[in-house]
Amino acid sequence: MVDTARSADATHGGDWRGATGAGAQGRRGSSREHNRFAGIEHVFALIFLRDWHPLLRDPLDVFRLSFPVGALVYALMGDWDAAVRLFLPGVAVFLVRAIDVPRPVDWVFAAAMFFQGWGNALHLFGQYWWYDNLVHITLPMSLAPILYIGLSRLDVVPDPSERAGSDWELIGMALITASLGVTAASFYEIYEWVVDNWFGQHLFIGETDTVTDLADGFLGAGIGGLFLAVWAVARYTSRRLPQRLQRRVLAGEPVR
Amino acid sequence: MTASQLTRHRLRVRRLPGRPVAITALQLGFLVWAVVELAAGRTGNAVALVATFAVVQAPRLLRLPVLFDVAFLVAWTLQELGQVAGFWSRYPWWDTLVHTAMPAVLAPTGVILLIRAGALPDVLRPVKRIQAVGAVMLVFLVAGGFGSVYEIYEWFSDSHVGTHYQPDNNDTMTDITANDIGGLLGGVLLVAAAGRRRREDE
Fold first, then answer.
1. What span, in angstroms and rounded, lies between the C-alpha atoms of A158 and A22?
2. Between the N and C ends of chain B, which has fewer C-beta atoms within 10 Å?
3. CB-hemisphere CA count at 13 Å for B40?
4. pLDDT average, residue stretch B5-13
5. B134 interaction partners in chain A (CB closer than 8 Å)
6. A97 touches A121 (CB < 8 A)
7. pLDDT in tens, B15-73
8. What H or E segment, with its residue span, contains residue A236?
């Protein structure tokens, strides 16, 4: 990128190195700024986009480790309830890691699971009235696109990029993605109802709570469906880019 | 193609598919029932029955297979027996039956319409077995998604309009579960019927 900037400067302003005067100083200032941006871009790519190691790829993997580490700490403290409530979301985030979904989807899901797992462990659901809504929106929002992408890998539904041919195709894909999220949310409500009624649990459910959770799920799943439609329109891949391709992309080489 | 042939072709294209007389007779039964309700002074019930008569014409207007006429007839008869004949209060399980039957009929219809509109891929001609499973799942998802949204509507209506659709949380959860079961049933029946029809065509 620096080389490109230099050659562009040389084309428009003559010799880049030998330029003098106010115009040249301005160009030098602009070039320094450009270099700074290129540096920031490079550091961003190094930290967030490039794989560090196959086992610990990026900051998201470090974030994922907070679940098993937290579960272990709580287990050592003897709080088995918090340990299990952190361990299970941890399993979910590592499962999603295995299917290599695009990074933004992976990040949103990890954040949603963080709210769920750590919210339970730190008893945040009871402390903040809005916390339950936050979890019930973010979970279907992230889960719906993941489920759709997962099903497309199994050839059950077409890949998102194949459904960007017309508005109707996008609407259909967004609808099915949203339905996945809403149905998943309704399954959770059925689970709560079953364990409350037949297994003696007390999850403090009621009519308003159930419907509010469903409405949150509907909102989140709708956002997830829209997100996938936008993603398909942008023609981004539904996979996390492999390292080989990534290197080429970061180096600015054409990807064939 | 001559002008007269073109006209005949257009007429043939526009003409709605025929239906067995028994189905038409049973559909007309809703109108007869509406007249009886009107004579008894129950105008609301009569209007509901006339509306139902219009709804059961949908499969023919949408050129769906005869199987859908039968399915619509059964589902809406169950609905009207609950609403007009009072079966909802007479039999506690009637509501669950209707909540199973409705998505079993409506979700496959919705999926067919979405396929025709190009919103969904043609999942009714699956190449692999997993795609057939996918077709069942799409019907199930449409039923599950819309069923959940319908429960939100019922709650909203009860809270803000003063209706009494949802007596308690058990009713809501039973309805959602019944919707899901109905959607699954509808998906399996649709894929089975499509497969049978495809084999017959071959």
1. 58
2. C
3. 13
4. 57
5. 151, 154-157
6. no
7. 777 788 999 999 999 999 999 999 999 999 999 999 999 999 999 998 888 899 999 99
8. none
Rg (CA), chain A: 24
Contacts of A116 (CB under 8 A, 6+ apart): A89, A135, A139
**Which amino acid does the sequence have at A240?**
R
| First CA to last CA distance, chain A | 20
The residue behind tokens 């084309």 is: A11
Asked if A222 and A178 touch (Cβ cutoff 8 Å), the reply is: yes
Q: Is B144 on the interface with A (CB under 8 A)?
A: yes
Nearest to B187 by CA among B115, B106, B94: B106
Tokens of B70: 């039968």
Distance from the first to the final alpha carbon of chain B: 30
Contacts of B146 in chain A (CB under 8 A): 179
A32: left (phi over 0), alpha (psi -120 to 50) or beta: alpha
Give the span between the Cα atoms of B135 and B129, in whole angstroms. 10
Determine contact: B66 vs chain A, CB below 8 A: no
Asked whether residue A21 carries a pLDDT value surpassing 60, the answer given is no
**Residue type at A106 in one-letter notation:** D
Taking alpha carbons only, the member of A152, A173, A154, A168 closest to residue A228 is A173
Residue A49's nearest CA partner among A255, A248, A234, A227 is: A248
